[in-house]
């Protein structure tokens, strides 16, 4: 009899992002209770801040992250746009600068190998250079 492989449980439960002109922060809230935060710390007086929150299903795995980075952006931002690809859907987080189509843009992508999932990101300055995986 063929054995059924156990289903992988998604490590990331919720993704929370803040944006203004650019993506300011990105948090992965894990099923374990751990929070993996990237970018700026939130402060209570942030005007014009927009929030995005995505809940991932139990068997939904974060598999790929793509960053659209403006080389002219402030170094403490995380890009013009971040695209998160899960095993079930694509999630997009955009700053207001996306509507201007910045000229000095670079696309960076990190993809987990088959059977693995992304649990955190690695940035050098504000450029996506890698990820933590399970």
Q: How would you characterize the overall build of this protein?
A:
The strands form 3 sheets. A 4-stranded antiparallel β-sheet has the order 3-2-1-4, with no helix packed on it. A 4-stranded antiparallel β-sheet has the order 7-6-5-8, with no helix packed on it. The mean pLDDT is 89. It is mainly beta and 134 residues long. The chain contains no helices and 10 strands. 0% of the residues lie in helices and 51% in strands. Strand 9 (118-124) and strand 10 form a beta hairpin. The protein has strands at 12-19, 23-30, 35-39, 50-55, 62-70, 81-86, 90-94, 105-111, 118-124, 127-133.
Short description:
Helix content is 0%, strand content 51%. It is an all-beta fold. Strand 6 and strand 7 form a beta hairpin.
């Amino acid at each position: 009899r063929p054995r059924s492989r156990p289903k992988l449980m998604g490590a990331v439960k919720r993704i929370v992002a803040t944006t203004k002109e650019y993506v300011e922060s990105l948090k992965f809230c894990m099923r374990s209770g751990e929070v993996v935060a990237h970018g700026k710390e939130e402060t209570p007086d942030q005007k014009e801040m927009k929030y995005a929150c995505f809940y991932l299903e139990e068997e939904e795995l974060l598999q790929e992250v793509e960053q659209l980075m403006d080389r002219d952006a402030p170094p403490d931002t995380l890009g013009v746009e971040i695209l998160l690809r899960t095993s079930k859907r694509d999630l997009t987080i955009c700053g207001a600068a996306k509507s201007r189509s910045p000229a000095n843009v670079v696309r960076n992508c990190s993809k987990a190998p088959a059977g693995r999932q992304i649990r955190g990101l690695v940035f050098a300055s504000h450029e996506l250079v890698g990820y933590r995986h399970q």
